[in-house]
Amino acid sequence: MTNQPQETIDTLLSEERSFAPPAEFQAQANAQSAEIYTQAEQDWQGWWASWAEQLQWDKKWEQVLDWQAPYAKWFVGGKLNASVQCLDRHVQAGLGNRVAFYFEGEPGDQRTLSYAEMLEGVCQVANGLKSLGVGKGDRVTLYMPMVPELAMTVLACARIGAIFSVVFAGFSPTSLKDRIQDQSAKLVVCADGCWRRGKVLDLKSVVQQAVKECTSVEKVLLWSRGQGLRSESAPIPQEVAWEDVVGPQPTTCPPESMDAEDPLFILYTSGTTGKPKGIVHTTGGYLTGALATSKLVFDLKPETDVYWCTADIGWITGHSYIVFGPMANGVSQVMYEGAPNHPAPDRFWQLVETYRVSVFYTAPTAIRAFMKWGDEHPSKHDLSSLRLLGTVGEPINPEAWMWYQKQIGGERCPIVDTWWQTETGGIMITPLPGITATVPGSATTPFPGIETKLLREDGSEVEGAGGGYLVLTRPWPSMLRGIWGDAKRYEETYWSRFPGKYFAGDGAKRDAHGNLWILGRVDDVMNVSGHRLSTMEIESSLVAHPAVAEAAVIGIAHELKGQAPVGFVILRGGYDQTQQLAEELRQFVATEIGGLARPENIIFTPELPKTRSGKIMRRLLRDVAEGKAVGDVTTLADPTVLQGLQKEYEDKEKC
Ligand code: WTA
Fold it and tell me: Is-contact 77 480, C-beta < 8 A?
């Protein structure tokens, strides 16, 4: 059922190490007593409403929840503006001088922006967007690096009610084009480039190629990174410069009063087909979830904390736990543009020391890289400001967890392993750091108000210890409201496998203590360095190459990335199975989709293992690629195909 070998999971489940919250941490925690779970259980709608009340509403809701499965409306009739929650509220409370962002560029350039400065900047951008004809309900695509202007543009869209969609600035022109076209964006906001490992990434040329085929795009608003960075690209026909459009604008802009259920953003994520899904999130519920989870999971103390989430705003983690959650809480944050190992592998720890970071949130893939680079890098720095650590995006192996706890957390910081998804909008399964005894490798228990179940194939519930499909059984405020333009796919993907329940696509096990262990995806979705990729998407890209007749892609276990894509390829007649062609195909995928999707390996094969009905048996390919004993082959049409493949793979490994 899962991508992870059964033996590993059983070993994990006998994990007996457990860490109670340190007394000192518990004494100051935002959530100190397990009663919070009981209270939320007694009245889960009331629990969420109590969080919504902490936001600033223009008009209060009439009904907390209208649930016509699978369609939820939260805080029905309520009106508010998302940017007000993150900015105006704090400035009005006299906190305008508090630092919103300590920004550091990869070359070392630094900027500090207060909440008041962010508000002024956001208003200028909002006025600029309006001057370009963008208004409520229009779609705006953002293709920008990690700079404060990205957060500003997100909040500026929210301010005028435009629906924003951030595309991670590592995606290819084709991926960007597909997303712009899917949402018929009127405006693209981009940067000319950014710094990565000492080199300039030319983002403008990506946008230039992407918008050629996008008839909906009226203007491209171009922000210049500066700092000696130059884009060699020719002007884009619809290009207008940030300094001309945004620069002269007034620093105030009245916020649009939005319905709680008005869409806030669309974020694309990979599904099981070749076409990414535009996940739609709305305003009131999403903010409620982001506010509550940030405050309790990260134990935020806005007066004193310096929080740093190392994700990119191009992913959901950056939306919920850089922009909306932390900013709605009014905390100060670090934002860093570049690579963790530039100019040296201690860059992150240098930043933690410089800015006295107290809460740090990153991904297991990064932790595994830090382990590999060596303990000397964190040891060089004073990390005593840290008080809480978090992880997200993929299962964390206990060894990495223990390393994180010791080398980064100095054995004094609780670790919150947070399970959630683009679709859930906010954290769903997690320890609460002042309450939960943490266990290396387990995300522990659902957040208060959330109910999870493990189901068997036939939909019956696994009670007590055991494994199954992970489902969420109640609506929650920050849940996705749909897939942009595709209601049918929304219903089918999430709500039809187990009718009326949200099927997450992950498998999980519950141990004897009631803790949950996420086993990974049970569908054709891979998790590469914490980022979701669809096997189908990479397959479609491979078969678009003239040399390829057929392709099957699988994710195999990878020491650093968690999983890595491997492509099995049948060539068309007239093409030779050369190393050079394999390299060309790897590069082809990287150019078509983005560097993340580049296959680790290409295996040429004359045939693929298929069921009698013609379905490729990816599970068997995975066994071959991981060098494991091949599993059940009884449904295979031609068992000899596998032997050939195994030999092919072993030969490849040797060279
Ligand atoms: C995986 C990222 C184990 C899971 C926020 C999920 C995790 C997918 C964890 C969502 C975790 C996320 N432990 N697995 N703590 N967090 N995942 O949409 O497979 O990019 O379905 O959201 O990442 O990835 P997405």
Answer: no
